[in-house]
Amino acid sequence: MRALYVAATGMLAQETNVGVISNNIANMRTTAYKRQRVDFQDLLYQSLRRAGSTTSDAGTTAPVGVEIGSGVKTAGTPRIFSQGPLQATEKTYDIAIRGEGFFRIEMPDGEIAYTRDGSFELNQDGVLVTVDGYEVEGGITIPADATGVGINGDGVVEATLPGQTAPQQLGQIQLSRFINTSGLESKGENLFRETEASGPPQTDNPGSESMGTLVQFHLEAANVNSVTEVSDLISAQRAYEMNARVVTAADEMLQATTQMI
Fold first, then answer.
1. CB atoms within 10 A of CB 43
2. Is the separation of the CB atoms in 177 and 212 below 8 Å?
3. 64 shares a domain with 92
4. Which domain covers residue 160, as residue numbers?
């Protein structure tokens, strides 16, 4: 029976939905994590009678058609790039982005990756890097004897060096933004890469037009709302149960038909 296959697509769709929700919940404490949602589309229809088709020799037409659907499919799992709350950390190289933009990270193969995670460290050479050791683009190096390192809202990195009274500029952090952030490809480790769907990056200094500003001593938290996720989880579970009930009902109908034969 058609209902068996239709209900099966519904169960598979809700299984995907639960998987995405569980990943959101698992990353509630992940720095700058952006939640995902699942978009669904209905599948092809079998048209038994088209709307507007002739129904008599007098030329009358059917005001509605007869279409039988074949289920549901997963159309996409876009990320929601809304601003997460900023949390104070009191750590010098923790930087949050308030507004639009991504940090530019130089990968070992020369590729530029993008992240909202600003939990940076210094490597053995004093270069500003991610927790995995990937350099922040620009090769910003902090001298070992530098004191009072500051990063202002426009991305300028300054520090006081021995024998000097005025802070010296050590580098400039730049941000990139995309016309379609949902088109970015997730590559793990809180990193994204550009795709044709995302469009090319638009790069500028923080605080410039359309770019966010930087906030030192802070990190951006995940934008996952636990109440919303639990509510969505319950809805997905009930939808799965209803589709499973359709499978049971279709099986009972087939059993009745078999007994008649």
1. 12
2. no
3. no
4. 86-220
